[in-house]
Design goal:
The complex is a heterodimer of chains A (about 475) and B (about 375).
Chain A (H helix, E strand, L loop, with lengths): L8 H12 L4 E2 L2 H4 L16 E3 L4 H14 L3 E4 L16 E4 L6 E5 L4 E5 L4 H8 L4 E2 L12 H7 L6 H4 L6 E7 L5 E5 L13 H5 L8 E8 L1 E2 L3 E9 L2 H13 L6 E6 H11 L9 E9 L1 H17 L4 E4 L3 H12 L11 E4 L9 H15 L6 E2 L9 E4 L4 H20 L15 H7 L2 H14 L29
Parallel strand pairs in A: 2-4, 3-4
Antiparallel strand pairs in A: 1-2, 5-6, 6-10, 7-11, 8-9, 8-10, 12-14, 12-15, 13-14, 13-17, 16-18
Helix pairs in contact in A: 1-3, 8-10, 8-12, 12-13
Chain B lengths: L1 H4 L7 H9 L5 H5 L6 H15 L4 H13 L3 H16 L8 H9 L12 E2 L7 E6 L3 H5 L1 H13 L2 E4 L9 H5 L3 H16 L5 E4 L2 H8 L1 H4 L7 H10 E3 H7 L9 E5 L3 H4 L6 H8 L4 E3 L15 H4 L1 H18 L3 E4 L2 H13 L6 E4 H7 L8
Parallel strand pairs in B: 2-3, 2-4, 4-5, 6-7, 6-8, 8-9
Antiparallel strand pairs in B: 1-3
Classes of the chains: A alpha+beta (about 475), B alpha/beta (about 375).
Chain lengths: ~475, ~375
């Protein structure tokens, strides 16, 4: 673990400015405030300095400086992580890649695109869509989150049920290791897609920024679906909706997306977007089929039959692209609408086998009653990836503690049901305690060994993922001021 | 802003700088699923900053000049005479760069007459509306005001233009001087109250959103609260009024694009209406530009206080316009017209005209009587 920095902050800032220019370094207390946490706001601590490089060479120079001074490095994209993945636990230099945001080369013929790590996810599809192509992973934060951050957490999204997560769509990338070496892992921009040797690309995707700093990435583009059919299944109970999810998959259908929203979240979304959701329904399912028109027609019949067999009150079909877009806007902005329900929330990212969805949903409801906090749900039902949103008010320390406890209980239950504590958000600082529950000591040792291959000094994004890591010194209710 | 309020963040030059850099375009309000009223938060924060933070002398002087000149049409005319003279003599290169760019933005002088206090509807009168002349609008775009009144008349509106009206107060509210904004509001409410109007029409998006917010602005004033709310309920943008009126437009053959003025699209949520009006015109082809609702950088007096950031946005807006290949850019706010026209000129595309939507509709509806 890195020792406390020995040399003065003013010297550090001066040297950083020499590398990236005066406008590329933030070091005043007020400016660092914006970087004290990500989307997980329960723990906060500012970095020593934030640096905003524009080139890989600048990243290398900053990394070399940090190596010389034995300073922690915290890579950061847009800061939309929900697990404290970019928290500067004990300070250090935060390397923020949002100025390296260019789309460098769109190779339509080979269906791939070269981007800088700070390129925003949604921009890739925007630029590729005139050619009938898209970048498949579509996390709900896609209008803001960066490709580099997606690689760090191996991001998913509603449509990854059928099309796969980040690792299935990143062909290769450039990574700056904590010792200043620059490597290209996986397929190169001018090379073929089959790469000999170990798949180090695959090993590094989902490393949560603990292996190095990704600076450029080569992404696979997917032909956009020719046709879509999007259903909104209206159910009286979460149980019925959960059973429907399980039955659809059991019938051999893999929809493009299969999402559930419960009553509480639906109410908030209706208030925000006036979509016309039925407010008295216990649960809604968004089921989207994509592909070729003939196949969709056959599957539609089966899906409607399954919904009705499970007691669906109504199965609506989006009448046009505009209505379909409106529905997805509601789904993808659901977390953002929580402000209408509560001043604060903490979300969990547990996964259970699909057949256990009714069990975990019942457990969440019981937990909500037990802890006296409301818990709306909006999640990737098709993957069994739940996102209970535990609502609390940070001004009441009792509520903060109960929210934390509720989250822990739910994740414990996920493990008990044969699931996992994270589907896509990552471990970060938030779920460290669960690693020892989910993995044996040998498993954890193997992971640490892999990490040390890339970062022997464990200086890159320290204090994340592994049990026994240092806790944020400022983790106390008094510090949880603004959200 | 919350950190300042909670005492976690000092109100120093850095903090002020970040708040200054905000355009106040309120695109975040359109984006926010939780419905946070960011515009109001920003105005109150700026008001707090101006009361508690001392700016350098030059900055204060520049801001004071803007706040003094723009809300006073007569003073604005006089002040603009000097730079216009310089421009006519080709001497603008003597000025510092920021001032030179501001001067280059000025449109040619319009020697238009004042808007008459009353102009009757053509044909049957459907409603009686008040007309807000604006400050920049009447000094630089009086022709557009005339066009707006003609359109309203053709749409069956008797138009009353109270002579006692003044600045809407937006300039003050946006730069952190809420008390002056409230004074403006009181003056206008009184000026329009006496005329018994069905609605109050404004053709400048920035002023329109301010007028619609008088209710909130005077919420804590027991004497004016209800009168302000009643005033705001009646305010409509010109396009809202025309959209509801039967007014036929002549066929034309022209490719246009539409730029969303921030205060129309984000503050007033009027996005589809102007497009619908354009498309009602047979033969007019509306080509959407990329990022149509992205700010052009004008943002009230932002292009005068933050020229560098404004220029970046101006460049991006003009690149998006050039990609559409249109001959005419339509919008609904004077600041946007100046900013975009200047940007196109800089980009060597001065032949593309930027027009207020009222001028465009007026020019193409003169041939036909009401349908």
């Amino acid at each position: 673990m890195p020792a406390a920095p020995q040399f003065a902050i003013s010297d550090l800032v001066r040297e950083l400015r020499a590398i990236v220019g005066p406008d590329g370094v933030l070091a005043s207390e007020s400016e660092l405030l914006a970087y004290e946490c990500d989307g997980y706001t329960l723990q906060r601590n500012p970095p020593t300095a934030v640096v905003l490089p524009r080139t890989t060479e600048q990243v290398v120079a900053v990394v070399n400086l940090c190596r010389r001074e034995n300073l922690p490095i915290i890579p950061r994209g847009a800061g939309t992580s929900l697990s404290g993945g970019v928290l500067a636990v004990d300070g250090g230099v935060m390397i923020t890649l949002t100025r390296m945001n260019r789309l460098l080369h769109l190779d339509v013929r080979n269906r791939r695109v070269l981007v800088e790590a700070g390129c925003v996810n949604a921009w890739v599809t925007r630029e590729a869509s005139p050619f009938g192509l898209c970048y498949a992973p579509d996390p709900s934060s896609q209008p803001a989150c960066t490709i580099g951050g997606n690689i760090a957490t191996n991001s998913g999204g509603p449509h990854t049920l059928k099309h796969g997560v980040t690792t299935n769509h990143v062909l290769g990338f450039e990574i700056v290791l904590p010792d200043g070496q620059v490597h290209w892992l996986g397929a190169t921009p001018d090379g073929c897609e089959d790469v000999e040797g170990y798949d180090l690309r695959g090993a590094a995707i989902g490393c949560e920024g603990m292996f190095g700093i990704v600076t450029r990435a080569l992404l696979r583009l997917t032909p956009a679906a020719v046709a879509h059919k999007t259903f909104l299944g209206v159910f009286d109970t979460v149980d019925e909706a959960s059973q429907t999810v399980s039955d659809i998959i059991a019938a051999g259908i893999v929809p493009g997306a299969l999402e559930m929203m419960d009553q509480l979240i639906t109410r908030a979304l209706e208030e925000a977007y006036h979509f016309g959701f039925p407010l008295d329904a216990g649960a809604l399912l968004i089921i989207e089929l994509d592909g070729l028109p003939d196949g969709i027609a056959a599957q539609s019949t089966v899906i409607e039959a399954i919904c009705h067999r499970n007691g669906a009150r109504e199965v609506r079909v989006a009448k046009d692209d505009a209505e379909r877009a409106a529905l997805w806007k509601c789904r993808k902005r659901a977390f953002g609408a929580i402000g209408r329900l509560s001043p604060n929330y903490v979300t969990q990212d547990g996964v259970v086998p699909r057949s256990q969805l009714p069990v975990i949903m019942r457990f969440i409801r019981e937990t909500s009653e037990r802890c006296g906090l409301r818990i709306p749900n909006v999640f990737h039902a098709g993957d069994g990836n739940i996102h209970p949103l535990i609502l609390y008010d940070e001004r009441d320390p009792g509520q903060v503690q109960r929210a934390l406890a509720a989250g822990h209980d739910i994740l414990d239950k996920c493990i008990e049901l044969g699931g996992s504590v994270t589907g896509e958000h990552g471990i970060g600082v938030e779920k460290i305690d669960f690693m020892a529950k989910q993995f044996s000591t040998d498993d954890l040792d193997a992971m640490r060994t892999l990490r040390r291959v890339f970062d022997p000094e464990q200086r890159c994004n320290p204090h994340k993922m592994f049990p026994g890591s240092k806790r944020c010194a400022d983790f106390a209710p008094r510090k949880q001021a603004a959200a | 802003m919350r950190a300042v309020q909670d005492g976690r963040l000092a109100l120093d030059a850095t903090t002020t700088r970040h708040i200054d850099l905000c355009l106040g375009c309120r695109a975040c309000e359109s984006a926010c699923p939780s419905g946070v009223q960011y515009g109001a938060l920003l105005e109150h924060t700026r008001d707090h900053i101006e009361k508690h933070h001392r700016r350098p002398v030059i900055e204060r002087l520049w801001r004071w000049s803007i706040e003094t000149i723009f809300p006073r049409p007569r003073l604005m005319r006089w002040t603009l005479a000097a730079p216009r003279l310089l421009r006519a003599l080709g001497l603008t290169r003597l000025l510092p760069r920021t001032m030179r760019e501001a001067v280059e933005m000025l449109p040619p002088t319009q020697h238009a007459t004042a808007i008459p206090p009353y102009s009757p509807a053509q044909g049957e009168s459907r409603q009686r509306v008040g007309f807000v002349t604006g400050c920049v609008m009447q000094v630089l775009f009086q022709e557009t005001n005339h066009a707006s009144v003609r359109l309203l008349n053709r749409a069956g509106c008797d138009v009353v233009t109270p002579q006692a009206q003044g600045c809407c107060g937006a300039l003050f509210a946006h730069s952190g001087n809420l008390e002056c904004a409230r004074d403006c509001a009181r003056r206008n409410i009184a000026a329009f109250e006496s005329a018994a109007l069905d609605s109050i029409i404004i053709n400048a998006a920035g002023c329109g959103s301010m007028l619609k917010e008088y209710g909130a602005l005077l919420e804590d004033d027991p004497v004016w609260r209800d009168r302000a709310a009643a005033f705001s309920r009646r305010v409509k943008d010109l396009v809202e009024c025309l959209d509801a009126a039967p007014c036929s437009l002549a066929p034309t053959n022209i490719k246009v694009t539409y730029h969303d003025a921030c205060h129309l699209a984000h503050a007033q949520k009027i996005v589809a209406t102007p497009r619908r009006l354009i498309q009602r015109m047979p033969g007019a082809e509306l080509v959407e530009m990329a990022e149509a609702d992205l700010c052009c950088g004008s943002a009230g007096s932002y292009n005068l206080t933050e020229p560098e950031m404004a220029a970046r946005l101006q460049h991006r807006k003009c690149a998006n316009i050039l990609a559409t290949g249109v001959e005419v850019v339509l919008t609904s706010n004077p600041g946007c017209i100046l900013q975009i026209q200047a940007g196109l000129k800089k980009a060597g595309a001065g032949h593309i005209r930027v027009q207020h939507i009222a001028d465009f509709l007026d020019a193409h509806s003169t041939l036909t009587e009401r349908g």
